[in-house]
Specification:
Elements (H helix, E strand, L loop, with lengths): L5 H14 L12 H11 L11 H10 L5 H11 L4 E2 L9 E4 L8 E5 L3 E6 L2 E6 L5 E3 L3
Antiparallel strand pairs: 1-6, 2-3, 2-6, 3-4, 4-5
């Protein structure tokens, strides 16, 4: 269930992410951004593991018995009862997966309206929903 005033709280996380000057794996990246959004929307901590490098991230996936980010996202969604939805029905605050062939097998972003916001090493990127492969309703 989404918390009271989740919209303004989500907007604050979005703006903080946009305004950050540096991208840092484990602090300000394509996993920490959606995780922060989920936490602010639901008040549920879905992922608390720490990593400081790509090597750490790969090691963590292995420890969690996940082959890639998608595998971890599918398990996390199931554990938290986040329903998979049709991509066209994704709404503000929902999480989407995009296969960009990144080092960890894809990336996660947050629906901000008609676009999905991703926090990549190259900066903030907006993609149309239709380019994504999977969406989860966060509530």
């Amino acid at each position: 269930m989404r918390v009271e005033n989740w919209e303004s709280k989500l907007e604050q996380v979005i703006q903080e992410t946009i305004n950050k000057k540096t991208w840092r794996i484990g602090k300000n990246d394509c996993i920490t951004f959606p995780v922060k959004c989920i936490e602010i929307i639901t008040n549920i901590k879905v992922f608390e593991r720490k990593y400081k490098s790509l090597k750490d991230g790969k090691k963590l996936l292995k420890e969690l018995r996940s082959k890639d980010i998608l595998d971890l996202a599918l398990r996390t969604a199931k554990e938290n009862n986040f329903k998979q939805i049709d991509i066209s029905k994704a709404q503000r605050g929902d999480i989407l997966y995009y296969n960009n062939r990144a080092d960890l097998g894809g990336t996660l972003g947050v629906c901000i309206g008609n676009h999905i916001m991703f926090n990549w090493k190259t900066g903030i990127n907006l993609l149309e929903k239709e380019k994504c492969k999977i969406a989860w309703r966060i509530e």
